[in-house]
Every structure is written in structure tokens, then in C-alpha cells.
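The data are quoted verbatim here:
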Amino acid sequence: MSNKKKIVILGAGESGVGSAILALKHGFDVFISDFGSVSEKYKKQLVELDVPFEEQQHTEAIILSADEVIKSPGIPDKAPIVKKLIEKNIPIISEIEFASRYSTAKTICITGSNGKTTTTMLTYHILQNAGLKVGLAGNVGQSFAKQVAENNYDYYVLELSSFQLDNMYEFKADIAILLNITPDHLDRYNYEMQNYVNSKFRITQNQTSADAFIYCLDDEETMKEIAKREFAAQLYPFSLTKEVAQGAFQQDNQLIINTTKNQFTMNLNELALQGRHNLYNSMAAGISAKLLDIRNESLRGSFGDFKNVEHRLEHVAKVQGIEFINDSKATNVNSVWYALESMNTEVVWIVGGVDKGNDYSMLNDLVKEKVKAIVCLGKDNKKIHEAFGNTIEIIVNASSASEAVNLAYHLSKKGDTVLLSPACASFDLFKNYEDRGQQFKDAVKEL
């Protein structure tokens, strides 16, 4: 009988396969179980690695014999197999927790309800341009575990969702960034906002006085929670409305970043990322860059030439003078608020999908002011009709990206913007938000 420690990995996606690669490297007995089907790409990798795996089932006898389980962040705690693991006191960790045991690299960790991916990509861009040996992982890029197994980076920029943070215990962020907290994924948190808030604040766990915590001074939920807690890390707030001694703020059309290292200033018009929400993202990334001693000239260059991520307020095309914008990554109400707030024309808004307990009331004023028609893209659009039926005269339903684009095109005139900003998850009609965004872009090109 083998004396090897047995690791079972639930979920055979990017993080699961990456975890398998790292676990094999460190001599574990590995088994992967996926309740869904495993994509051909990952199947091929698992066969090459000679890792036993199963799909479309969970064999309890094997899973419940694990010493430790690495769980994909997409699997909720209420899944029957997870409940059984908890009953048996079998430790369940995330891929990030597992990978961090074998890495001595510095970590810059980014969470928040909105702006995570943009801030993560911008931070990575800044560090790469400065010549640092840096990896990109978490919710973006390749699996953290795979990179720890195969590369030798000095730094990692990690985008962390609340689901990933939930199964992280010993992990520590050297630089923790919390962008904002607005209601999201409440279906995974028993519809209790405090549970979700607690999850986000796990990004600060285990930090010491040698570490940094960067947060938004203007974000109500964040500040409410900060008032209740004590932090070991050095605090670096950022704000659009208040001047701060240590952190970032705006003044006289300048972005100003102060750290103990030195001061950085840059004209707001020179930033590649424009708009209020993006200024917050730039501030957070900029503070982390200064804490890592990135030179001002290098930071200025990176701020000036950064290209935003796909599916986040992405310009697709102009057709007959109508602008089409793909914001498929906006899977919650707050993301949509930022998108609508940045619009300077009349908008035909494509919205809908799998509702995550959304409260649309915060959008009422912006919708009144900017939206001329709504196209609902989803299987169940009742909640959207209820929320905006008294505000917007024209609300129509579509059951495909192509139908939504055609309807929106006919409801628009020259000078308008068609904005796909769904406020919902995509799994009713699409594989994921990328698939939704791609189908939207393909349909626009067909016009």
C-alpha cells in the first residue's frame, strides 16, 4: 500500500490540472474528479501526465479517502460531495492555497466586486514593463499551481475571487488590494451581505507589518468594515474625493501617488484608461507599483500605453454611426453602473442572463437619464421587466446574441451606443461571459 499523501482535485479545468501538475512534482498520489465533462484540451494533458480522472460523476469512495481536497472555486459548499467532505473533516483548500506552499515569490493580490481583471492586468503590465520576473494567475492567465511547478518567478499578480479566498487559510498577500464591495454572488453566501464582505476581507488575513493593504476610501461597504477591524499591514487608501498622506488621490486633474518611497504625479488625460472607475483601478495598481520601487518614468509609460482587457467596455465597431460596446464581463449591477455612467450618448442596453440576486434599483437614475430601449438577453427576463417597465417604454426579449444585436441595431439611430452590459451570469445561453462577448462581437460584424 502506498504511503504517499493522497490529494483529490475536484474540477478538471485550468486550476485543477495545474494543481495536478504541482502535486505530481511533489510526490502526491493524485486523482481528479469532475461532475461535468472535461474539455479535450485538459483531457489530453491529464492522459499525458498519467493522472487518473473521472468525468460526469463523483466516486465517493475515492474522494472521501483523500488526505486533502483541492476544490475548484466554481463548486459551491452546498454541493453534496463538498458537504460529505466537510462532515468527514477532510481539509478542502483552493489551488492558490496549495500553490503558495511551494512558492517564495512576492504576491500582489487583487480582489473586489468590480475592476479586478483590469487592475490585475494593469499591475502585471506595469511590473513586466519594469523588467521584473512576474507571473499572472488566479482568475486570469495560467494556473498559479502550474506556474509554480514550471517557472521561477519573483512576483505573482493574482486576481482572487471571493470563492478562491474562501478556501485560503495560511496564504498571505504581500500586497493586498481590495477595490470595492457591492452585492454580488449573494446566492453563494446565503443572501447575507456580511458573509460576502467577510470573504473579501480574507485578502488581508495573515498579513504582517511588512505587508501592505490598499483599499478604496470612497467605498461605503469597505469603510464600514474597516472601522470594525484591526490591521497589521501598512494601510494605503485611494480616493477621488479626499487627499491622503499615504496612498493615491486626484487633484487639479493630476493623479498623485504618495508612498514612503517618493511621490508620483501624472496628468489624468495621459492615462490610457479613462473614466472614473478606471481611475480607481489605476490608483490601486499605481500604489502597488510604487511599493515595489518601480521608477516613475517606467510607471508613466505603462499607464500611458496599457490596452484594456477584452469584454470590459471593449469598443467593437461603429455601424451606420452606431457604436457597439462589449461589456460582457459586467456580471453584476455595480459593473453596469460604471458602464452606464461612462456613456455620453443615448444607449440601447442589452441586459440579462442568470440573475444572482440582483437589486436593480441603484441603476434607476442612470437608466432614466441614458437608456432609450432595453433588449433582454436571457431565458428568464421577468425581473428586468419588473425593474424597468415603468421607466423604459421599449423593452424587448432576445434568446441569442445575434437576435439581441439585430433588435438593438433597429432600435438605435446614428450617434447612439449599443451596450452589452448584462449584470448577470451567462450560463443560461452561453458557456461563459467570454463566449457571450464573442458571440456579440461576431453578430455585430455580421450587420
Notes: DSSP finds 17 helices and 20 strands in the chain. The longest strand covers residues 371-377. The mean pLDDT is 93.
